[in-house]
Amino acid sequence: MTTTDFIRAASCADDYDPNSMSVEKARKYIRDYLSPVQSKECLPLRNALGRVLAEDILSPHNVPNHDNSAMDGYALNADDLQPSGPTTLHIAGTAFAGKAYAGKVGRGECVRIMTGAVIPVGCDTVVIQEHVQAEGQTITFGEGVKRGQNLRYAGEDLKQGQAVFPAGHLVRPADLGLIASLGIGDVKVYRRLRVAFFSTGDELASIGQPLAEGQVYDSNRYTLYGMLTRLGVEMIDMGVVRDDPRLLENALNEAAASVDVILTSGGVSVGEADYMKQLLNQLGQVVFWKIAMKPGRPLAYGKIGKAHYFGLPGNPVAVMVTFYQFVREAMLVLMGQPNPVPAPLLPAICVAPLKKAPGRTEFQRGTLFLDQDGAWKVRPIGNQGSGVLRSMSEANCFIVMPESCGNLPAGETVQVQLLEGIV
Ligand code: AMP
Ligand code: MG
What we know:
The chain is α/β, with parallel strands linked by helices. The protein has helices at residues 3-11, 23-33, 173-181, 220-231, 245-258, 273-283, 316-334, 390-394, and strands spanning 40-44, 57-58, 68-69, 73-76, 87-95, 109-113, 125-128, 132-135, 138-141, 151-152, 163-165, 186-190, 194-200, 204-205, 216-217, 234-241, 261-265, 284-290, 293-294, 298-304, 307-312, 346-350, 361-370, 376-380, 397-401, 413-418. The strands form 7 sheets. A 6-stranded mixed β-sheet has the order 7-4-6-5-9-8, with no helix packed on it. It has a 6-stranded mixed β-sheet with strand order 16-13-17-21-20-18, sandwiched between helices. Strands 22-24-23-25-26 form a 5-stranded mixed barrel. The chain is elongated, with a radius of gyration of 30 Å. Adenosine monophosphate is lined by residues 199, 201, 203-204, 216, 218-220, 265-267, 269, 272, 313-316, 387.
């Protein structure tokens, strides 16, 4: 979508309606406008954890590369199984993992075999040691053994030439192991996303400064730092910028010159938004939304130069909610993941009544717990004020209440979104 199209489409929501832009619609506009990073780099495998693959990874060979035993036991040829009654076989030798049995197994013979050892030539079945009576160089076992039992076949895990991961895949710990199992030591990934962020507000003091009357310490840069660290992006913390158009202009221009994403907090609520609007209209193409959500109603989004811009609200809880609901997914797309998995919504029984007016999607803070009756339940945090950051610290989930939902009595099933794991 071109910037002009985006601005035209995304701005046409009715400014006089305080609930003009739904969470879903805003997500879609953001999504359609994102342009992911293109540059790639080659990294040693371990360093690729948390990065997004820039190329398909194909299996250079079969995994496993030979038929092998899934259990400790005896390898045999199923043609030697007695149709009824016990089978007795002579033990011809032993096959270890990494040290195959060199000979050929003849009729009436078997080979003692360890898990992972290559199946000896002439064998097609493994009977596990627990089912066998061994005496000297012979074994005896009962009926019920089936041909092909306890074998892992060559290429069962991966076939040679098979696409193991597509480009756009986020590398997780299991993936490091799987890529290593192919013998691949270097992988091509997209470069890290560069993100600059700063807080705005004349009332903000930084840690280390005394707190004057009416001031608050800047906490948003710390929550943003935490969330961005978990996303694995490169960060530039630009500190606190006063509510002064010249200083804000300098900071935004400086950031736009060197990063992919700019995040600011504060300055987009009613009253403050007017000069931010003017400023951002000069510097780039940005829309100001009143999102039908609580907390986090004001949100600015667009581009300044080549950088994507998110103007988050100032309230500390609203910063986190808007980050989780909009910024996180956008960042994953920008990092090169075409279809990031959304944070899942899970049902839980709410043990207290919930207060809510229909009209906005609410992200109330709650504690999910396993009740004595074995059911997962959620208790809302007492103070749901959007400035009360303690509610986020106490909570382990959002209780996500859809736009149309009103008050709910205790005992209703609600949807929760776990905070741990969102980033
Ligand atoms: P604003 O969106 O700028 O009107 O700010 C809304 C509320 O959030 C005000 O009470 C601010 O003092 C507070 N606030 C804004 N930025 C921060 C910050 N970086 N850290 C803590 N509180 C903030
Ligand atoms: Mg402010």
